[in-house]
Structures are given as structure tokens and as C-alpha cells.
């Protein structure tokens, strides 16, 4: 497997990393009408949208800050030695333009964009956006049949509704996804769940449909390698989606998010869990809830793109 | 005119200003079911809502930060000597709880709350929230007949729609208010308008209905006193609403807002223009678009509550 | 054991967490003259006072920021499932008003306030304030007989005096408390001590009176569970006070404090050590040295209230 | 005069302003090998370079932050009504890649890039970079004959050398430019000079070659309109370069710069002086010394791009 | 008048301004036991003390940050051309060590230090500290006979007491100074007073003893030159102290202070009013209330030392 | 071994830690012409220089911020009980003045300064500066014969060149040092290497000359004690240099650096690895790449000086 040099990122040895228009990982930027769009194999897509946020907004600014931080990423995985950009054609496909004042309209736009990718055979690596982003993406990716999911997060995002019946928020996407048949709950595992809770409604639902929740105290007690072995077993070799909420990571390492929960994994494990995904059948992945207004130093975005690079490596590993 | 001591704020000579649960200006906090609710004459209300924001969100956090900063406000106007809390019964009436993921539901909730105030004869001084806040407030205050408005802002907020037809955003409230008969456009004046523009659609509408726009270059050329004399003449002695967008003020003085425009008035004039409102027939006032996530030092909130104190003085002056 | 719904916090499902006047954990705010004051079982009290600080001041702003952050806390402990607000009547009792320019006057005021709580049978959970706060609190709680103490900190706060004989500073409270017979030194354990030292005067004193110090290198070598087992054994089933200085936690997780010491526990252990207190006879607890001016992002306050919630759970566990 | 729609920026009514890969003013990004490069009339170019900085570095990050902030700029000048993008073909030509560790190599690279523009007939609007940036740019623009210059700054940048003979720093570019025959000193005016001084060496040089310096106290005493009338007279109708150091503006409005000097113009005048350039024969312009590491809130970059928009308007006015 | 080169500051042309141990204005640092202490004519002294602060503390960190910022100051006044360090022997005399937990002890220490200066004939230029600093300084300087004072501030600091009788706070120093016969109230003028007020107690006292207050609205209406002419007339040619509270300046220019009041002078006037002091008989001067914890960017300290440089120029002008 | 009290630091019990001109660890400041210069045994030296930085500059501000933070350091090692200042004469020797605009000139100046130290028998503990700083220092220290090195870092800094042949950058110092015979590669160990990579050129070079690289995944797998035992064995008892790049530590603990790499050690291990150096033959040590502009809260500088104190302890241990 070998990629077209057209799709290789610019090296920091040639152009300093602070220079240049910031695309994801210094890849070429291709809009859907670009003549080489069809040659893309993995598309990095921004979804600057946070209208589903019930608490502190900000992830609409995520894609831009993630692009900025991503110019710090180099070509090779320091631990595995993998050079993903030389394996498959990667490109920055730009942002899906949401309608910040209309949730339904935004979801329609997002799903439409991802259906284009599905048609072209492009696998998406998404930079959100709040966690509601995953729902319209899954509507495109799982239209044929439900997918499995490995979900890193401190929250289940499985609630039924908020504020007296509001169905579409960043706390409900996977409840909807299960209801809509986009996720096969028996092939879904949620890792890192923690924090104070409203009630057990989300966990009761998980249990009722067969979603496996691994709370943080179990995660730490078993160690990440053991947990990830179970996760791989749960999703098996069928098509699987990876959803990574930055608040999975402890807020000392990733402060820039709207609903942080203390007591999470450190940055070494933030990457290590993703390396354990190598070899899975990944149809798409997302990094969500990076919120620049709460990320005073840019540390969260940098951690976010470091995770995205590992996700990319997982997507191109055999 | 003399107020009930029950409604007097706590003095910083007795309790240090950094101490205590932060209510607006250290006033008593009364929910609508409080036995003394009916005795309130001016109610300070928070509307923590920014779902109409087309650009950078954050004003949902405004009321809390404004309350925090407001404990720096003392009892007496330094220039006029007025002691507003001794004139009328003022209270913090808490926040209207919005639905961050549903604009229509939020507007319904806000209008309902303000209709209660109208019924009780309480005049509201509102802390937003983005500028769409003014629309559901006006729906309660102007239900009987259209009101006039003096509007401090760098934007007209008179656009028809955004993103292909979305009618309810923070860029459209006064277009809707005119259409709904809540504002008498001939008695509306907008002061401080500036910045780059999309097009002339908003200004053409203003002209077509008789709204008077005073752009910043005219404002500086004439001086604030002359401008305010014209503004007073435009609204006359009939019921008038005051809407104060913090981005009226230059962002060096008020950085914490979502759509700043450089080249505005300084903080001395930010207060001085409000003092010129004394004697008008003010049915309500608001301070909107204070956005704490973009207000690293709290300076904007402090300026905002200083303006709110002047608005309060204007509302109680004869 | 079941509480009165009057004392239940507002849910974030009903009112968004950024909305409302911020009381501790969204509990009702009751001043001592409130008719239901006598029904309170655990009172959350702020002591906005830092006049005893020898280094960088700021904890006088602690209670306000802790209240603000505390609206992120939900009703249920994510790990134990405990719902403390449904077990006992909890309330925000406001702040004790200190005299920032007079240490003795402030201590008198604080002790007087806590004596009222003792009389009413209200157990206090205090938000400081610098560590000198614990002394006037203990003067009220331990008037009858000395109490034991589990003390989380990076410093012993056992020095004799500063600056040529000054007895009352945040580095001396527990030296005074032992001298005044408020603490039974044989039932005192200090956990997490670290950092560079002036000399051994404090440790020599501890040894001479029987206070057990567990320095950080021992803490990490043994693990927190083992350390906490010893701590429980030291205080036994007699009345015990819990004092938690936020600088116990590593400053990457809790930067907002005046005298940070690197090399401390992470946020998972910051909570875990408190969960090990369940079942002790806790007469009161405090969270001190949270200093908002050095807490640029609010992370420290959020960690602080998360610990306070665990302390509350420990206080209501059987 | 009418431009090709290919070169029009994306509207915030269509794509929210926080969305999309950030190019200057949302213009198309064209590298020199782009087929439409030759159609560009005004090129916005970044020079991310600060190796000439003698004090606090940072302007190498300027172009990226200026691009980010520039997505807030709309299509029309609010005061003059001019729509520059509809007049001439504008594009983002990317960054010139400097060599951060070699000043001479960087200057060679920069001059080479701008010579390409001169050959293509593209007028440059540069985003620096520290003030040494202007020298290699002038080497390309003034190769045929010396140009005049209107220079907004708090410093003259006319020193002979630093640190015992170092000739190329951000404090010496215009001394070199005069020596190299790139500037006609009789047609050079420097406006806003202020701050404490090392000595009079720079001013003596200015006097000796006929450069006109207008210090800040004269600027304020006469008013900006009168000063700009003199400036226009000095440069006349011959080719003129505009160099705008962001530290011309008072640091309350533009804190993000390496050598701020208090007591400067406010943001209204920061724009107004540029509007007075309309009609001049402008061969190129730059905005330098924007230093994001010292621009905690992004305010300086936003002011910087607002000035760049005015510079663009001046460049396309008749 | 010509100074000893031993007392000249290091030039930024020789040692970059960011280098070196930061003394005030890069002057030599001399402790009282230094052999050349007696040769000093003007001593720059830090008083890192804020125990008198009733609101937000922090000025104890002022001297250090002012020293840091002061390395940006060069040798020559940009407007007058004066080179103060070549006129008189200036030195950094270090900090007076306060006792942060004992106000009376601290005042004793400060007065003792300044009595040493008086004995040696050294005129002090003080960097505070909160405004209570001025009292122990005046006790040394005015022991022989009362002095006059020009006082730049937004507050009068003339209150009788706080918190039920506390006499020594940063809101009371000049009340005490008048009572103690240190100030001749007929030769005292306070400029820039503004903000909301507790009551009129301070102003009534001023009137009763003949202190002239020039509130900010009068200041702006008359212009600074006219106001300063009156100020010079009030103090005449007798010994005069200059006290400059940084909150005189608008908080957009000087945010780093504990009790900001919006609506003040800009940075140009912040310096200009000091230049008007040339020729007065200045026995000492202070810059107080610079509070680094509230000065996120260092802008306030930089403005503060810029004012200190102008104060120094005023002290050495004939 | 016992030191002269002249070289003891000022205690925080006598002078509060926020007071005084900030020298390294409150030691006396001695320039080379000071009469007691020759009595110094360990000299703390600042090298405020970052011209070799290929990415984000800032370490030129390191020494000043490290001095400021160092006043928090007390006299005694909390874990070992060692009191280094009582063992050997330590002093702050000031900063080496670099030429920010000339790399070769700066290296010459630095080497000349350190040759003076070598001549006087003073061992240096350096505060950088970017990592190129180590090269001119080693040129002085290793002139006689190559030294060994224990190098804590996330990068090898062993690249051949950048930007088409530039040899002297912060990514190349140890390549040059090996080439110049300053380091004995067989006695060099690099610990903590991680992050994405350009290519394997640096690692291939290391292998070819016998440098031992311990990447972070090996470091965590083995534990720090085991790793450090190997490191000690590699350097043995011959002269050894210690180079500590702050980016060895995870950026959650040390954000203020130009090229952070996530997934590193925490602050406890940051110190613990240095304690393992006790007894080695240390000829000098450095702490580099602390970059204040990216260290919003000062946390990095505080960690940096805490490591410097441990380095000092290692240098004086037997």
C-alpha cells in the first residue's frame, strides 16, 4: 500500500511549523469539487458545530484550533514507526458548514456531506463539534447496517432527553443512534465513564440494550491494555466506528472542554488506548468536544490532534 | 419616593465586597413565589441564553459573571449623587431558565416570565444573553402597544435572516420586533453603528421604516451630548425601551463579546450616554452580549454592571 | 434516613447548570435568621478570608468561585451511587464576613458563627479561606474536648511562628490548635507532606506530640488505600475533623493556590482518598487554600468542589 | 473596475465565520504554481519571521493569527461603502517560508518571493513578521527606483546597529533601506514616534537625510486629519510604500506586540489614518509586529486585520 | 548637575532588555549596608505589602513585577529629552520587608526604613504596595512639618474606618495622615476621583479640612493642563509629596489593580499629568496599587514604570 | 564540607518570598568582577537566548522567570534532608548577554563566559535558553576531554541540519557536540524520547555512534528507578554533564515550552529521576527550553526551578 506524493504533508524541515495556511496535519485542502477529490482515501473533516450543547458552548471553534495545532504533527508515529500519509491518500476536506441557529438543518447538512464521502469511498476522520456531531455522521456511515462502536468518554451520552423533552442534544446522540438502528448496541463499549450523575437512567438503558460500560474505577483497576482487549473482542472484525470525546482524558491534560470530569486518564494513556485499535475494521472516527474558549493555552487542541494522528494510524494499520 | 430597607443592598463597609452569595448589586434574591415579590418595583433579571448567536457563543454565561462583578457596585452615583436603591424597591429576580437546544421553547419561556413582571407592575432591567433576548422581552413589554427604543450597539441587528432563511438569530431581533409591531420604528434610534458590513440590506430596511441610525463617525464628530439630545427627542415622553449591546463600547474596554468592532466609545462615554437618559419614560432596559469566555479578566462584566447601575439610575430619575 | 425535598438541589435537567444565582451545589441559601435554619443538618459555609497568608494571597475569593464551579455537581456519586442530598438536609449558609484588615477580629467572628452551628446541631462543611481558617472553626467544634484530624496537605502547618514571632498565620494553625487543646495530637495524621523545607522545626514538634506525618514518597510507595487504612486506624471512631488543603493535589491538577508544591497526587486520587473516609465520625470538614487569582481556568475550583462533594458523601455515609 | 467572482471571499451569511480553513479574509489561497496566479492583482502574503527581534519575539506567529482573525472581516467598508474585493482580484498567496535560524538566508528568500510578485504585477499587502520584514520586501519593490513611505510606528527603526555592530535587526530596516537607495528619504514620513529613547542617533540621522518625524505629542496636538494631509503632501503622487507597525496604536488596544509604547492613538484613529491614504500611489503595504504570544485575547490580531482591510481599501481607491 | 557613571543603568544596546537580574530601571542594587549607599540621591524602593486591602489583594507582588517591566525603560525622556540618570545618582534600594500578617509591625518597619533615607538625604520613589503604604512613608518624610500632596486616584482614601472601626486600611491613609499632621490639607489636591460611592463621608471630611477634590467629570471638562495648573498652584513651592494610585488610569489601560473604576484617563494623559509636575519641590513620590495577579499581560506594570520614569524626571527637573 | 554564610540564601521566615530583587534561589548576585567571585563553587547562570529555535520562540525569557519562581525554593530538600547551600558556596552569577540577532556571536560570548568559570573552578548550573545553549557551554566544559551526558528530553536533538543545511539550531546541538569531540557518545544516554518524528535520521546517528536512547514507552514499562540505574552505569564515575530539557516532563505539568510532546512523566518523576543522580561526577548541568510566553501561570518555571534545586543537590551530594 503506497500513497500518491500529492497527498503528503509539508515537512517542518522545509517550511517551519508555524508557517503556512493551517490545514489538518499540513495536508492538501480539497473541496468536494476538486478534481482529485475522488482519489482521497481518508478525509479529515471539520464539523464546527455546538448547538446541541446543554452546558458550556465552544466546540464550534474546535476544527480551526485543531487545524492550527495539527501543524505540530510530523510524519511518523514515534512508537510504532508507522508513516500513515505514505500508506493512503489523506486530505483535509474542509468544514461542513452548519446552521448555528437550527439543529435540524445542521444535521441534514452534515449527513448530506458524509453521504458524499460514503459514495466516494472516503473514510472520514472528523474533528467536531460537540458530541451531537456523531449522530448525523452515523446516519451516513451506518445507513446500510448498524455498526459497532468503541466510545472513549467520561459520559455515556445515552440520555433520553433534556429540559422537558428535547431529544437532540450532546447528551443524547447514542440513545438516538440505537433507536434509529445505526448502532448495534451489543457491539458498543463505552470506556472511562465517571463523574457525578443525575440518575441511572442512561445506565439502565445501556444495560437493557446490551451496551457495555467500563467505568473509570474499573479501567484503572484493570489497566488499559486489558480493557482494550475486551473492547476489541466486543466489536470484533465487523465495521466499527470510533468516537473519542476529549473529556475522556483528565482535565489537567485536556482542560478545553465544556463538561470536564476530573479523575481521568493521563496523556500517555490517551494515546495508548488508541494504539490498541490497530487492525480493527474502522469505518470512521471522530474527536469531539474540544472547546477552544476554555483552552487558554491550546494544550487541549494539541492533545486532540495527537489523538487524531493515532486514530489515523489505527485506520491505516492492517 | 423612598424604598423599603428590606430591598437595600449590603454595604461593603459591613461585608467585604468579595464575600457573600453574589446577587445583582448585593440585592435580595426573590423568586416569583416569594411573599414580597409583589413589592418589587424594578427587577434585575438574568437571561442566560445565546442560542441565537451566529458567531462566537458565550453570553449564556453573562448573568452569572455580571452578578459576580456587580458586588463591586456601591450605593451612590458618583456624579449625580443619586442613591437609586433608596428610591425604589429593587431586587434580583433570578434567571429565566432557557432551553439551550430549542430557540422557540426558550423564547416562550422568556416571554412568559416577563409577562408575570408586567402583571405585577415590575419594570425589568435585564442582563443577557445574546441580543435575540430583547425580542421575547419586548413581546411581553410591548404587547399593548409599540414602544420606542434607544439602542446602543455597533450593529443594527436589523437583518432579515441568516444561513438561507433562519429568522431568529441575534442579528435579526429588531427586524422581527418591527414586523411584530412591538417597536414603533419612527421612535427608534440606533447609536454607534460601525464595522465592516455584509451589505446594505439592514440599513435599507431602517430607512424604509424610519429608524434613525447614527453611525460612529457621526457620533464622534458631533459629540455624545448632541447625539443624545437628538435621541431623547426621537423617543419623546412615550414608553421607551433601552437596549445596550456591550459591543457598543470599544473592545479595548469591553473585550468580552462575540462580535467586537473596533473604533468605538471609551468607558467614560459608555456611562455618560446613559446618564443622558434621565427623565425618559423607560419601561425596561437590557445589557446584552457580555460573553465571559472571551472576557479573560472580567473587565467587560465590570463595565457591564457599571452601565447597568447607570441604567437603573436613569430608570428611577424623575 | 431521608431528607426534606426543600433541601434538594436544582437539577441541570430542569435549569441549565450555567443558570441561576450560584449557591453551593445549587442548594437553598439560608441565613441564620431563616425560619428553616434549625432544620439544616449539614451546612456549607464560606469563609472568604486570607489575612493569615504569608506568601501569595487570594483564598478570600475562594468561596465565590467554589460556589460558581459547584453548579456543575450533580446529585449522585458516580462510583458509590450515594445520593447525599436525599439523606440529610443540606443548605448553603452563606459566608462568614471577615475583617480583612484585622486577624483577631476575624477569628472572633468566625468562631462565633460556628458556635451557632454547634448549638443548632449543624455539621459544617467549610470552603475557605486560607488554612488559618481551620483554627477559629476548631475553636467552636472542639470546645468540649479535643478532636482527631485527618489532614491532607503538602505542608504540616505546624510551625511556631513567622517573621520574628507572628503566631497566627496559615503556616501555624495546627500548632496553635494543639497548644489550645483543640486537637488530640495522637489522633492526628498528615498526608502528602512534601516540598523544600525551611528546617525541621515543624516535624520535630509533630514527633514530640505524637502527630503522624506521611510524606509523599511514603504515600506513593505504599499506595493510597494502605495509607488511608492507617489514617482510619489513627483517628478511630471518635469525633474527627477533616482538613483538606487543595495543595495536597499536584499543581497540574490544582494550580490555583498560593504555595503549590509539585510532585503530588493526581485528581483521581484526590477524590479516592476522601471516599476512604466513609464511616468515620466526622464532626466537620474544610476545603482550604483555593485561590482564584492563580486559577486562570477555574480548574482548581472545580476540583475543589468535586472534593467537597466527596467530603459530603463521607459525612453522610453510615 | 470589476473583479472576477472567483476571487470573492466567502460570506458569513453562507458559511459561519468560525468555519472553514482560515485564509486571509476568506479569499482563495493560491500558491505561485496555481493556474490563476497571474490573474491576482493584490496579493495578501504572510511573512512569519521574527529573527531580527532584539527584544521579545513572537511575530513569526503573526500571519497565522491574522488569518484566523481575518475571517471576521466582511465585504464592505462600513464608513466609505467601498467593496474592495469587487474592484480588484485579491487572493491569499500563502506564507514565505523563512529560515528562523539564518537572517541572511531568510532575507534572500523573502526578496525572491516578492520579485515574483513584481514580475506578475501583483501588489503585495504583507502580514509580518517583525519590522525587519520590510527591508527584503522593499528590495524587491524598489529595485528600479526609490519609493516614498508613510510609516506608522512608535519607533523610527532608523538605528545604525545593535549589540556592537549588528546591522540587521527590527530596529534598523529603514536605515539600511535609505543606505541601499530603496527609500527616498525626502519622501518618507514617520508618524506616532514616542516612548523613552536610547539616544538621539536615529533622529539625528533622520534630520540629516530629510526624513520627517511627527512625534506623538505633535500628532495629538494637531489632530490626525491635519497630520495626514501633511503626510500625503510629503509623498505626493509618486510610488509610495505604507508600513504600519502595530505598536503605533496604544497597547490598550493592541497589546500583542514585542516593544509596546504607551500613550498612542486609539482604535478609531488606528483606522482613520489609513482611510486618509485613499488616492495615493501605493505600491505595497505591510502590517508588522503583531505578536500572538503577547496577545492573550486575539484583540491585536483583530485590530491588525481591520487595519489591513483599510489598507486594502486605500490600495484600490482611485 | 551630573551623576556618577556608577549609577547609570545598563543599556539595551549592550545587554538585551530581557536579560539580567531585574532591578528598577536596570540601576545598581544597593542595600543600606552598601559602601556607596550614602551617594545615592534618589532611591527607588519597593514596598511589597497589601495587608490594608479591603477588597482584592495583590499589590504585595507589585514591586517585583514593576522591576521586571522596568527593564523596558530607556535612558531618555522621549518628549522632554531629559536624561534623569545623568543628572542625579539613582539606585534600586531593594524592598522593605513587611510582615504580611501584622499591619502595625509592617508600618513600623517601613517608617524605620524611610527614616534612614531621610537621614542620608535620599529622596524616595516608592513602588507599592497598596495605598496604606503612603502612610508609614509620610510618617518618615513629614516628621518635621506637614507636606503638601498631589494625589492621582479614583478614590479619595479619606474614609474614617471600615468594618466597624478598623482604622488602618488602604481606604483611610490620608485621613490618618491629616489627623497625624503629616499632610497640610490646604495644600492637598486629589485628581480623578470617580466611581460609585458608599456615601459622602470622605468628601465631607475633605471639605471640612480644605482638601481640594477634582472629580473626573471636571477633569475631562477642563482638560488636564488646566487642572494641573491649579494643582501646581495649590501646592506651591513648598515640599510636596506625589502619590499616584494606578487606578487613576482607566482600567482598559491599567487593569491590574484591586478596585478599578471605569471612565478614567488614557495612557497618554497618565504620563502627561506627571510631566506637568516639573519644577515642584518634590520630597518623594509613590506608585501604588499595581496588582500583578489581576494584570494578566503585564500591561499595568509597564504603564506603572512608565509613570515612575516620568515621576523621576519630575523629581530631577529644576 | 561547609559553606560561607555569605553565600546563604535569604529565608522566607525573615523576608517574605514575594519580596526582594529576585536572584536565583535568593542567593547573592555576583558579577565576574565581584571581589568574592573566586570563592564561588557552584554558579547559577542564566543564558537568555533562543535564536536557535526552529519552532516557537520564548526561552530567552526563561532566566528571568526562573529567578522569579526560584524565590519559592527553601533551604532543605524535603526528601533527602540535604541542605545544599550549607555545603558549598553558591551564587547567582547573572546572565550571559547574547546577541539575539547573531547566533555565532552569541555562541562565542557564551563559551567565553563559561571558560572563565572553568578557570575559576566554578561548576555551572545553567538556566537556558533553548537547547542550542548546551553547545557553547560544552565547548568550555569539555575542552580538555569529552564528557558523558545524561540527557532528559522528549527529543534527541541529534539532527544534522534544518531548512536546507542550517547547522546550528536547538534540534542539532548534540550532533555538533559529538562531531566536535565534546561528548563521548558511548557515555551518553537520552531518556524520555517520544512524539511524532520526521524520520529516523537522528536515531540512526545515535545508533552509529553508540548513544543510548531510552524512549518513553520503555521508560514507563521499566520504571524510572531501573532506567536511572542503567543511566548511572552508562556514564560511570567520569565527568558527566546533565542536560534537562523541560519538555521531558508532560506538558500538563510543564506547558511553557516551545515544542511540547504529550505522554511524558509527571512532576513527581520529574524530580525523582534527578535524585537518582546523587554521587555522579557532575561537571555542570542545565535546565533549558522553559518558555515564559507559553507558560500562562508560571507553573513551568516553578517546576523548572524545583528541578534545578534537585540538580544542585545532586551536584553537592557525595
UniProtKB/TrEMBL annotation, chains A, B, C, D, E, F:
Cross-referenced SUPFAM superfamilies: Arginase/deacetylase
Domain of life of the source: Bacteria
Matching Pfam families: Arginase (PF00491)
One Gene Ontology MF term: agmatinase activity
CDD domains: Agmatinase_PAH (cd11592)
Key words of the record: Hydrolase, Metal-binding
InterPro entries: Agmatinase-rel (IPR005925), Ureohydrolase (IPR006035), Ureohydrolase_dom_sf (IPR023696), Ureohydrolase_Mn_BS (IPR020855)
Gene3D superfamilies documented for this protein: Ureohydrolase domain
Keyword Hydrolase attached: yes
NCBIfam families xref list: agmatinase (TIGR01230)
Protein family membership: Belongs to the arginase family. Agmatinase subfamily.
Protein name per its UniProtKB record: Agmatinase
